[in-house]
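so the lab meeting is tmrw and i was supposed to have these ready like two days ago... anyway. pasting both below. for each one the top line is the aa sequence and the line under it is the structure tokens. i havent really looked at them closely yet so no promises
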Amino acid sequence: MNPWLRLLRPGNGAISFVGTVVGGLTASGIDLGRLSTELPDLVLAGITTFAVASGGNVLNDYLDQEGDRTNHPDRPLPRGEVSPGAVQSYAASLLLLSAVPILLLGLFGQLPRPLLSLNGGLPWVVWALAVGLLLSYELRWKARGLVGNLTVAALTGAVFLFGATIVGNVALVLPLGAMAALATLSREVIKDMEDAEGDVDRRTLARTHGMGVAALVARLAVACAIALSPYPLVLWRPALPLPAAIIYLAFVAAADLVFLVSVSTLPKQLHREQSLSKLAMVLALVGFLGAALR
């Protein structure tokens, strides 16, 4: 793959894109009569989250050059395939360009959304908070262990909320954002466990409190996400038909099972365990989309 494309980690960006679209569709419910107006706007919103996530990934590679020589020597910067200065400019450009789709939504979006109204302003608020959190994480909090993990978790939850701000009904998506945040917290802690040897300049849970404490936090986060997973059915019950509820339950139950497996053997097979947690998040996304069929 082209090194500039690899820097984006397009798989992560794609999940952010899909999460934004799913968050919007879940907030409004899939209605074929409205889909032709809602979907183009949600796609634009998804491009914003793809650009923010990609910009964060590129900035992460720029700032983690030394640690990646040990943890990820196959990445473009440690391999010398790209220059640090160009990568820095690349990250800044992506973060700046991420605002363009929101501007287009405010000016030309098909949904009634005056740029300075409450509904029109919410996407800007979520975007600004997300970019601010991302920069704070990369420049300060990443090296501080749990607070950095919590920041990444909040950013993941914000992906779903951002989609909901495009169509309204943000409250309906709050439990999905919370579950996504908890699942991400577990995965981030596991990733820090995997990278503990090379993270000499970071105070991660694995380095400061040991693998046992880090594994406990990862398991607790998964347990809280699983405990929360039935709640959306209660929240959406009046409008959720039986087929949509079955789809949600089937995929979210499968995701819960994979999450359990991902933390069951910690810290023995760390790469396998964090890969399993990513699979579980994809399964949960499908379940969230199923809940939009109402």
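ok protien two:
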Amino acid sequence: MNRSIRALYLTLAVGFAVLVVMLGYWQVVAAGELDERADNPYRLEQQRLVDRGRIISADKIILAESVMYREKGKKYYRRYYPQGSLAAQVVGYATPQQGATGLEQQYNRYLAGSYGTGAILDRLRQETKDGADIRLTLDTRVQKTAEALLSGRRGAVVAIEPKTGKVLALASSPAFDLNEVSSDFASIRKQDGAPLLNRSTGGLYPPGSTFKVVTATAALDNGKWSASSTFDDKGVYVVDGKPIYNSGKAKYGLHNLTDALTFSINTTFAQIGDQLGGRKLGREMNRFGFARPTEIDLPSGEVAVSGRYRAGKILPNDQRDEDSARIAIGQENLQVTPLQMAMVAGAVANGGRMMRPYLMRRAITRDGVVVKQQRPEEIDSVASAYVASEVGRMMQSVVSEGTGTEAGLSGLSVAGKTGTAETGDPERNQAWFIGYAPAEDPQVAVAVVIEDTSGTGGTEAAPVAGEVMRTALSIDPVPGEPTT
């Protein structure tokens, strides 16, 4: 009898222990996964009870807000985007069915009111929650200009304040209407041109000659060359038996380094890269942020890493056996984001100091309490103030008399660099421009890429950059409360 009771006791004890373990697993370990499942009815109900905070631009335009509706006498909320497709990939969407992207995902904790002890009590009681508003650095006037100039073309535009890192615009084309995500997400996914991709932060492109700004910085920082160092171009530079030519196989003869950047002379920069070697050029790339994640406040999966790729993997910047001559002119499997190249221009504009780009200025509750705030933050020093000023002066020459004249602004000095990268089709290019203005007191730095075009960086990207900078430099603060 005692043996039977003991066996029964052990069986019950083991069963109870298994039950405790399983409950613990589902309540703790798997709770997050279950909560995120789109078919979780509790999650769907919970999200509909949240009056998410608004996302508001720097010029006080409401980009996202919650709209109340009633169902069976109960009050619920759904997300509404008053500006439709404006900055769609940056703002992102938040729906119970499709989840969240962009700023909606990055700052979900604040937008959904999931911070502080009150949020925990609301969740336990399953009551409605009020989220905090997110105030941005992004200015819709600059954003609209960028998107209008990209309209009908695939590409991206980035505009930042070089002294602070504030992001003024992140435009990606094609885009999509955020209000259609809930009702017609399948159609959006099928559209040509991958509109869900944020090309400004997640698109990877060969940089072409815009990378020569990095090479020029490395050359001057090395001390072996100056802006007036002379070269004798024969039209070709051979590395390991393979020739590097200038565009159109042009020959420039005697010229200096400023001329080389102004007219984008491949052979000169290939020679510099070859003499610098992978280690020294790689160190400069490290300073500029290549081969490491860009520190911007967007979900990490939406921000690609710029650098050299092999078999889909990012490579270190300072390997000895790399073809530094071709890296120096923006080739050798280099793939970069427009954001990264805007940061290159911004670092030169800011006296060699690279600032962390950011979109959110502050999160503020309905009663005016600031619960999170961001301030300018320096990431790295890419060069001395002197070297940066010399590179900037060379970039001014690109716009005043070289390949970037289309980016010029009447009455203002602009510094920049064009790039025309190959696509595999000799008739089609990836057209680039990076730069900043005014050259003497930089207020805006930009990067523009136009995909699959028959034109060049000078004819396609430079005019877009000029108009975006013109808009950024002409805007004034907007008084009053946020509006739709």
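from a quick look at the 2nd one: Residues 140-177+189-363+378-474 form a domain with the Beta-lactamase fold (CATH 3.40.710.10). The longest strand covers residues 62-71. will dig more after coffe
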